[in-house]
Structure formats: structure tokens, C-alpha cells
Amino acid sequence: MRQSSLFERYQELQGYVGWTELDALSIQSIAGRLEGAFHAIVVDFYEEIDRHPEARKVLSGGAAQVERLKTTLLGWLSDLFSGVYDADYVQRRWRVGLRHAEIGLDQVFCNMAMARMRSGLLDALARAWDGEPAELRTAVLALNKLLDLDLAIIEDAYQTEHLARQQQIERLAGLGQIAAGVAHELRNPLNVIKTSVYFLRSACDPTAEKKAEHFSRIERHVELADGVISALSNFARMSAPQPRPFSVGACIREVLNQTGLRETVEVALLGLDPLPAVAADAGQIEIVFSNLFRNAREAMSGNGRLTITGRTDGPFVEIDVTDTGPGIPPDQIARVMEPFFTTKARGLGLGLAISRSIAERNQGELRVLSEPGSGSTFLVRLPAASPPAHHARQPL
Description:
The chain contains 13 helices and 8 strands. The strands form 2 sheets. Strands 2, 4, 5, 6, 7 and 8 form a 6-stranded mixed beta sheet that branches. Strands 1-3 form a two-stranded antiparallel sheet. By secondary structure, it is an alpha+beta fold. The protein is elongated. Helix 6 (87-103) packs across helix 8 (133-202) and helix 10 crosses helix 11. The protein has 3 domains: 3-170, Globins (Globin-like); 177-236, Signal transduction histidine kinase, dimerisation/phosphotransfer (DHp) domain (Helix Hairpins); 244-395, Heat Shock Protein 90 (2-Layer Sandwich). The model is unreliable at 389-396 (pLDDT under 50).
């Protein structure tokens, strides 16, 4: 986070806890009373860490590292009571949270450590106080505000860095999954091509029919390999949606006509006509319904009943696509929309992954509900172009 934005966030938090310049002056005024206790507080802090293996495991540098950290913590305490809480001060606090994320320190221990630090400082202040009780209450309140602000910034930095690291891990895992999927899908056609090339090179005087058969096989599997690459390319290059109002009911009917689904499957349309227009990319949403209808037909082996139900839910339009197929096993339902996950003998397993990506890019979502033996329902949720007057969820 940029330093200016970070300081603005800190100022917002100051306003939230009611921090004022009087609090800063109060903190500055008690610094002299507490400086003598800093060393004992720091020693207690690291002795307590040493008693907890889970917290201690981040201190991999031995006694030398602990001594360096003690010096750093003494500097942190001096900074705390300086009375100057500017952008540089906030940046230094932010770096503490980043460092916690880097070393893998569970933030629970940071919270508990701050609680122990707070207790040590308040005890030291109470012992050293020789002024009016009302002034002590003011100082305690200011110190609690300041420690809460420090903890908030440290926690914010930790969460920001931790989230960034988790996303990077997920991206790398996704790349590995994609690489494995591509390798699996390309291996079969490449093996067929390799076998045919070997035959054409090694066969003694093969017949013209045999040559034509192997050339045809090579051509067919080159096309299969090209299809894998094209599908992956389309998945990666999905263009940004161009949202415009359109009738989702008309979109569904058009896709049904294109797929020829009604020829083999009984189709029921419920509640589509009263629906408000949706604000999304019509061409992309057609891809979603085309994938869902094709999957439903395959799940029902070309026979069964497909029920498409429309309704509103607040500012959204929801479409249920329900089939009478065998359903999805519980151990697979969480993975059915992952790239390259498929239970079919043929197919890339990209259709549902693309559909979910499209729905999310259009500010909607795609969910699945299924029980083995009871069919499956895919719910498409899209933003309405004009939110309906009644925001209560109503089947239409």
C-alpha cells in the first residue's frame, strides 16, 4: 500500500477510536515515567515467547536473533511514546505486520503479545504514577487507543500480505493443474500420431489404403490437439464483458433452438417471461447456457426432462437449470467447475470452468446443487438491468 494511502487509512482509524492531539500530548507526558520499565517489559515479552513452542518456532536464529529483536522492540516502545504519529510512523508499524506474514507468525500470537505488552505498560504506569487519578485515567485511555491503532495497522498489513501470498500459491497451483491437464489431453493424440508415423516409416510396402488410413488418423489427431490448444486459448483470452440490457428468456430460447435440445429432451420453461432484463454480455451468457444445456443432455444420455426456472432475488435475476440425470457424487461436486476436471471419457473439462468465469466477469455467479440419483441444478445469477420493485425473493 502506498504510504499516502496508508496514512489516510490510519487517520480514518484514529477518527474511529476518537484519537486527538490531546491523546498524543498525554502519551508524550507519560514517556518519562515508563522508559525505565521498557527493558523489563521486553525481557518478559521474549521469555513468554520462549514458553510457547508454536510462537518460538519463528525464532530460528538462536540467542543472537533474540538479542537483535529485543533491541528492535525497545526501539518500537520508544517510537510508541514519541508523540509523533505521522506517515513515517505508520509505515514502520505496517512493516511489522509484513514481517509477521513473511516469517509465518500466526497472528493470534501477535494479538496475545500486544495484550501482554499492554498489561506490562499499564502496570508500570500505575506503579510510577504520582499525579491525580483523573489524569491517570486520561493517560490510560490514550495509551489503550494508541495500542489499538498499532495493532490495527499491524493486523491490516499482515492480512494484506498473507492474502497476496495465498493468491500467489493458488495461481501457481492453478498453473500446475493447467499444465497437467494440457499434458494429459495432448498425450493421447501425440501417441497416436507417433504410432502412425512409425508405421509409415517402417512398414514394408504398405497398401495405399493403409497409408490413407494412417494419414487420416494423423490428421484427425492433429485436429484434436489443435482443439485442446484452441479451447485453452479461448479460456485464457476471454475478453472483458460488454454489458447491455437484454432478455435472458429470449437468450435461453435462442440457445435451445441452436442446440436442438428439444428434439431428444423434454424441456419445461417456467417464469421466464415476467423477468426483468439483465445487464450482462449477451454473447458470453449464451456460452454459459450452451455449456449447461449440453452438459444436461449428456448427463441424461439424451433422454429426460430439463426444467429451466426464472425468478428474481433483489437486484438479481436467477435461472435454475435442472436435469433428471444421475446427479453428481458428493466427493466431486466441489470440483466440477475446476479447469480440466471431467468425468467423461472425452472432453477437456473446461465448459463449466469457462461458464463460472463468464458469470463472475459479468458480476454474477454460477452455483451447483446435486444429489446422486436426484439430478443436478445449476443456478445462474445475473444482475438485473433495472432492479425489480419488490426485493423479496419470489419464484415467478
